[in-house]
Structure formats: structure tokens, C-alpha cells
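Complex 255.
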Amino acid sequence: MMIENVLKQLHTPDVKMEFFENIGSTNSYLKERALLGADDKTVVIANSQSAGKGTKGRAFISDKGGVYISLLTRADFSEFEPTLITPLTAVAVSDSITQISGRHPKIKWVNDIYLDSKKVCGILCETVFIPGETIPFVVVGIGVNLSKPKDGFKKEIEDIATYVFEEETEEIKEKFVALLIDNFFKYFSEIKEKTFLEKYRSNSLLLGKKIFLINGDSKTEATAVEIDDSCHLVVGFFDGKQKALCSGDVTIKFE
Ligand code: BTN
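Predicted structure with biotin bound:
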């Protein structure tokens, strides 16, 4: 991938980009760079990762065929709810997939993107508070399976993962990355107005569906009722009671 070709297509000013054919984790690398003073809007992109990180401390398989990207934002958290960054990113990814392919992904609350009932993208936002500084930074990590891996997906994920394109070209990848960066920073600049929220709701995979809340060994059936203004998932139980879930509260499975 040629960074110049991405920069040429970008509308967002002041983006600084670094590209790696392979890296351990773009998130870990960008966090280190941020601690050393990297600028707001620094973006790191890789074609593959050897130690990709997922949510809940899991590994994220990051073979060639995907695009792995981390974006740095330094933001004043007193001005908005930081928990909105992950849902906002999900809408930016979903818009970019639609713009590049004409396909319409669904968002599985809170941070997974699905195509045809299989996962096509995961998001991991990491916030770092620096002692003595009022403005923390956030590294937003996005892993998208843009095309079918040459030898197929690894066994562990072959039944649950999918891709956007059968095959992709360098041009498609460069265009996709430019769209993603522009969409992310546009929605981020409008975070106080929550301009992403309507799409977050209308593209939801779970709303109206029967779901299962998994917490350790317990499994509770519920219905996904609504996504509130703070992006909590409101679920309803058999007894008529409702509860607003925060991300990380439970694991959700759907039928
Ligand atoms: C998940 O689905 O569990 C979240 C996966 C997040 C993966 C991305 S790929 C780019 C960035 N670097 C990482 O090590 N992880 C994130």
C-alpha cells in the first residue's frame, strides 16, 4: 500500500500516517508512539499483525487480506462520553464498507461488524490516562477482513468470519483506508452532537431480536429493545423488567 495514494484521497487535514507490511500490533505500537508525544491524528496501518489484540485480552487473528489500522486522538474527555467512541467507530467502518462495496453491514452492539451473519471487523479502543495530564489519549484499533485470505481463514475463525471482497487490489485498499480515516474523524468531530447515533441504531444487528446474555456460567434469555442515547443496550426480560447494559457487562449471543 502506498501512503501517498491514501493521503491524496483524504479530506481530513493534518493526518500523519505510517505503514507496515507486518507489525506486532498497530495499537501497541501507536500507544508507545503516543506516550513519546505523537501528534493527534497519527494513523498506523499494517497489512498483517503477528500479535494482534482483541477485546477481553484475546488475540485477534490478523492475516494478510485484512487491513489493520489504529488512529490516535487526543481529546478532552470532560466534554463528551468516552464510551461513545467505540459505537462511533462502528458506524464509520460500516459507512466505509458500504461506500467501497455497496454492501450493508450490521453492527453487533457494541463493537463488531457483521456481513451475512458473520464477523467482518472488530474494534478495540484503548484509553491511556497520563498522570498529571488532563487530556488523555485514545488509540482506536480497527481490524477489517477486506478480502478473502489466500489460504482461507484459520480453523478457529473459519465458521464465524467473513470478508468484504473475494479479491481486492491495492487501489481498493487505499481507497478504503482513506474513507475510513475521513469517516472516523468526521464523526469524531461531531461527537457532542452524536451524529452517528441514528445509523448506530438503524444498522443494529440485535434490535428486536431474541438474545442470550452470557455471564460466566449463567445464560439469560432477553430481547434487545433499544439503544439509548449513551449507547447502552436496553434489554427486556420475560417478567417485563428492563435493564440498560454497558459494554463489557456481558457477552451476547444471538440466534
Ligand atoms: C475484537 O474483535 O476483539 C477487536 C479486534 C481489534 C483488532 C484491531 S486490528 C488493529 C488494532 N491493533 C490491534 O492489535 N488490535 C486492533
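DSSP finds five helices and twelve strands in the chain.
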